[in-house]
Write a structure and sequence with these properties.
- The protein is of the alpha/beta class and 146 residues long.
- The chain has a single domain, classed as 3-Layer(aba) Sandwich (Glutaredoxin).
- Helix content is 25%, strand content 23%.
- The chain has 4 helices and 7 strands.
- The strands form 2 sheets. The chain has a 5-stranded mixed sheet with strand order 3-5-4-6-7. It has a two-stranded antiparallel ribbon with strand order 1-2.
- Helix 2 links the parallel strand 4 (62-67) and strand 5.
Length: 146
């Protein structure tokens, strides 16, 4: 059961399995918790240097897309990742990290080409895909970690 620190008030929140089917909120102030279940709205989670650790701590697999707005292949796979986020039903989390706005995390994982898709499970890196891949390939790699 991951513990997520509220970005609003700093309270520590233990997230249980119910967070996979509903948006988790802080028990103290009621703010939405990043990475706990931000895909509930059917969109990828916005990942930043500040919330990266909390996001990858989710119970199920987490796919983080390292991308940039000027990158044509990144824009090409964006609709695929949006669709996957809508279809996840809490099985996995899809996140997007803009490498231009978050250079610390991009450097930490030696992101040299984008898009790069990193898959984490229980906070640990378990798979990496570099370049634009078809949905079937991305789903296959992600579901191997479910």
């Amino acid at each position: 059961m991951p513990i997520i620190t509220c970005p609003n008030c700093g309270a520590k929140n233990r997230i249980d399995e119910r967070a996979r089917t509903a948006q988790a909120v802080c028990g103290k102030c009621g703010a939405k918790l990043p990475g706990a279940h931000a895909e509930a709205d059917g969109h990828p989670v916005t990942v930043t240097d500040a919330n990266f650790e909390q996001t990858i701590a989710a119970a199920g697999p987490v796919l983080v897309d390292f991308w940039a707005s000027w990158c044509p292949p990144c824009r090409a796979i964006a609709p695929v990742l949006e669709q996957m986020a809508r279809e996840s039903n809490g099985t996995y989390v899809i996140g997007k990290l803009n490498v231009d706005e978050n250079p610390k995390t991009a450097a930490r994982f030696h992101i040299e080409g984008i898009p790069t898709l990193l898959i984490f499970k229980n906070g640990q890196l378990v798979d990496r895909l570099v370049g634009a891949h078809p949905k079937s390939t991305i789903v296959q790699h992600l579901k191997a970690q479910v």
